[in-house]
Each structure stands twice: as structure tokens, then as C-alpha cells.
Amino acid sequence: MNHSVKLISSFVDNGVGGNPAGVVLQADGMAEAEMQRLASIAGYPETAFVSHSDIATVKLDFFTPTKRIPHCGHATVAAFSVLAQQGKVGQGAHSKETIDGPRHIRIEGDKAYLEQIRRHVTPITAEQQAAAAHALGLEAEQVNALATPHVANVGVSFLVIALPTMGNLRSLRPDRESIATLSEALGVIGFYVISPETEVSGRTISARMFAPYYGIDEESATGMGAGCASIYLYEVLGHKSEHYLIEQGRLMTPRSPSLIEAELEVTDGLPHRLWIGGVAKILEG
Questions:
Q1: Which residue intervals of the chain are DSSP H helices?
Q2: Where residue 285 falls among pLDDT bands split at 50, 70, 90?
Q3: Average pLDDT in the 250-271 region?
Q4: Of 32, 46, 197, 199, which residue is the catalytic one?
Q5: CATH 3.10.310.10 location in the chain
Q6: CATH classification number, 120-276, choose in 3.40.50.300, 1.10.1040.10, 3.10.310.10, 3.40.50.880
Q7: Is 46 annotated in the active site?
Q8: What does pTM read for this prediction?
Q9: Does position 152 have pLDDT exceeding 80, yes or no?
């Protein structure tokens, strides 16, 4: 069976921008090697493969151009947007089966939200901070100007680094090889670098994401990274809110503005579950 890849842009901001994701429907019976090959040919940051599930609404398998990953936020939003457009899912509660177990999904209006579970938030060492600074073209003291960088995990891990200004984010000089080396050592997908300054007032943070270890130089919207950043905001930076709006993609070349919503469920003073959501736009297929 020939499988076509639909192109969806997830987490669009007022109908524009977003992050492209591939979606392959009726992927039942595809071998992992075949999925990886098709994801590599498609070349999108992530591609979701949709197949039948006995325990959830659908099963989703996620691949970057070079590696399999257990979860992907923007490809999940993309997949459920396609299913909703085709009338295969309606409003309300759904679920996805992944290699990391099932997760809940919500469809509300034109938005899809995916469940994330907080697992841990761990500071990195001074030596690792220096390596992270070098990888981003910063001085060592800049990466902990607001707080120590932490590895956060909500199903996958990202290194979250907070910088004071959008100017700091804009002037980053990422060394892809160094980022890939440290990402592998830390067991993370990549670096999620944030600032409390935003381009649009009323939003919480702006962000950039680099994941060259997984074949992604920079990404315009990262649902799992936004979840990790939300945990970091709440627990490390002390921004005690249960709702965040995260801008991403505005400092990329070419620019692709994205908007990610995060809802936190807090128990005993700590967020234990998150809902990451946004709007997707079908571009091709």
C-alpha cells in the first residue's frame, strides 16, 4: 500500500505560522523501518503515523527525520485535526496510544489538547551549564541569569534555559554539534530556551527550540518542549499560574509565529498533569 503524507501546520497563531507536521493515515502494518524511511523522505520536523488501537481512539507513532520519539505535541495536534476534519473524531474526550502508554486528548472547538504527565525536573551541573552556554554562544553566567537550567520531563525531556530578554534569544549563536553532544549526554530531545519578554502583550514567554541530535536544527512550535517549560516556569521560576501562553517561531529565519497554550493541574503545590493545546491548519492533503 502506498502511503501519502498530509502536511499540517500546528499551533498556528491567528491563522498563520505554526510548525509543519506530516500525518500518515491508515498506517496499520507499517514496520518501524518503513515509518522512519517515510519520515526521512518527508523531511518535516516530526511525522505522525495513525493506526488502529484496541485501547485508545487511535495509535500514534512519531518519527523525526532521523529518530523515533515517544511523544510529539504538534504532530498529535496535527493528527487529531485531520481526524476531526474527516469526521472520525468529534468534540470532547479522546485518547492516543503511544509506545509510552496511553494519553488523553481533548477537542474543544478548533483546538486540540494533549495530556502530559510531569515526571521530574532536575538541575544540571556547573560543568553542564558551561557546556550549554558554549553551545548557544553565551557566557557561562548568562544561562543562569534568571535560574539554573533544568532538565524537565513530561514524557520526553528537554533542557530548559531561561534568559532575561527577547534580545538574548534573538542573538543566540547555536552550535548544532555541541547542542547535539550535550543533548545526547543529558538524554534530552534538545534545548528549549525561553524569555519572559514576549512580542505580543498578555502572553507568558517567548521561546526557541534546538534539537539537532534528532535532526531538527530549530523548530517553530514544540508542544512537548512547551510542557517542560511550563513545569520549569511553575517550579523553578516561581511563576505560579495554571495557564500559560507561549510564543515560538517568531525569532526564526524564516519567521513562523506560533502560539501554544498550557493548562496545569496542580496538586499539593506541584503541577502533576498538563494540557498542551492549539490550533492546526491543513496545508496539503
A1: 32-42, 73-85, 126-136, 166-170, 176-186, 223-235
A2: low
A3: 96
A4: 46
A5: 6-116, 120-276
A6: 3.10.310.10
A7: yes
A8: 0.94
A9: yes
